[in-house]
Design goal:
With about 280 residues, the chain is of the alpha/beta class. The chain is built from 11 helices and 9 strands. It folds into 2 domains: about 200 residues, Vaccinia Virus protein VP39 (Rossmann fold, 3-Layer(aba) Sandwich); about 60 residues, Helicase, Ruva Protein, domain 3 (Orthogonal Bundle), CATH 1.10.8. The strands form 2 sheets. The protein has a 7-stranded mixed beta sheet with strand order 4-3-2-5-6-9-7. A two-stranded antiparallel sheet has the order 1-8. Strand 3, helix 4 and strand 4 form a beta-alpha-beta unit. The longest helix is centred in the N-terminal third of the chain and has 18 residues. The chain is elongated. InterPro entries: KsgA/Erm (IPR001737), rRNA_Ade_diMease-like_C (IPR023165), rRNA_Ade_methylase_Trfase_N (IPR020598), rRNA_adenine_dimethylase (IPR011530), SAM-dependent_MTases_sf (IPR029063). Belongs to the class I-like SAM-binding methyltransferase superfamily. rRNA adenine N(6)-methyltransferase family. RsmA subfamily. It is found in: Cytoplasm.
């Protein structure tokens, strides 16, 4: 990094710490503020925003990533629920550079911001990360990529391979829609206050059709949810009344397997069999 850029990042890190001393993190919003300069640099580098990109940041907090993003963008959108943080952002950034969307990210229509493609980046609240990921996945056809800071165990579930303990409903539904990769691991000390868990940054790139195409995605989601409703039970038991033994035979899937033993493609084939 150029010296001027590094000094700027150091200044922002100092400024962010000064802001932290004046803001009490709210547990109900899952607030842990990023403060590590090298982690911030790595995240922004991974996002690689271009000046005219439409970028939406979820949970800007005290601006640790917001300012470095604005150094590269003409304009940035942020989604924030904390009224105190919203007031800070309005004081620190002019509206022609920063548009603030006030409210719960779980209910926000991210597609309403632009008719074109967009990027999403954020340090997602760990207490709502799974439902928020499912909500964000619904905009998969509109985004170019998404970069999220998450609890590491959630990232492990997202990237899990079949026949491993982490492979589950979240794995199947996200791998069905996205190519995903680990960008970096982040220790608790990179935040204030430090969380009690390790964190990681994941990159998600839409990849429609990578595991087949479901005729009815709602049916696929319902099937996957039911299949993983009791992880220790077999497909025969969990999908009783949905798929009969003759259906499993036609699909070439052993009904005595547990759901985590299947490939993502197998769930797509089962859903399409039902739809057909």
């Amino acid at each position: 990094m150029a010296r001027a850029g590094w000094e700027g990042l150091q200044f922002r890190q100092f400024f962010s710490r000064a802001s932290m001393s004046q803001h009490i993190p709210r547990k109900r919003f899952g607030q842990n503020f990023l403060q590590d300069a090298s982690v911030i640099e790595n995240i922004v580098h991974a996002v690689n925003p271009q000046p005219d990109d439409v970028v939406i940041e979820i949970g800007p907090g005290l601006g640790a990533i917001t300012q470095p993003l604005l150094d590269r963008l003409r304009h940035l959108h942020v989604a924030e629920i904390d009224r105190d943080i919203i007031a800070r952002l309005k004081k620190e950034f002019p509206p022609e550079r920063l548009t603030i969307h006030e409210g719960d990210a779980l209910k926000f229509d991210f597609g309403s911001i632009t008719d074109g493609a967009f990027k999403i980046v954020g340090n997602l609240p760990y207490n709502i990360s799974t439902p928020l990921l499912f909500h964000l996945a619904s905009f998969g056809q509109r985004v170019t990529d998404m970069h999220f800071m998450l609890q590491k165990e959630v990232v492990d579930r997202m990237l899990a391979e079949p026949s491993t303990p982490d492979f589950g409903r979240l794995t199947v539904m996200l791998q069905y829609r996205f190519e995903m990769e680990l960008v970096l691991n982040v220790p608790p000390g990179a935040f204030w206050p430090p969380p009690k868990v390790d964190s990681a940054v994941v990159r998600m790139i839409p990849a429609p059709g990578r595991c087949g195409v479901a005729k009815d995605e709602a049916q696929l989601e319902a099937l996957v949810t039911k299949a993983f409703s009791q992880r220790r039970k077999t497909l025969r038991n969990n999908l009783k009344g949905v798929l009969e033994l003759a259906d499993f035979a036609a699909l070439g899937i052993e009904p005595g397997l547990r759901p985590e033993n299947l490939q993502v493609e197998d769930f797509v084939r089962m859903a399409n069999h039902l739809a057909g």
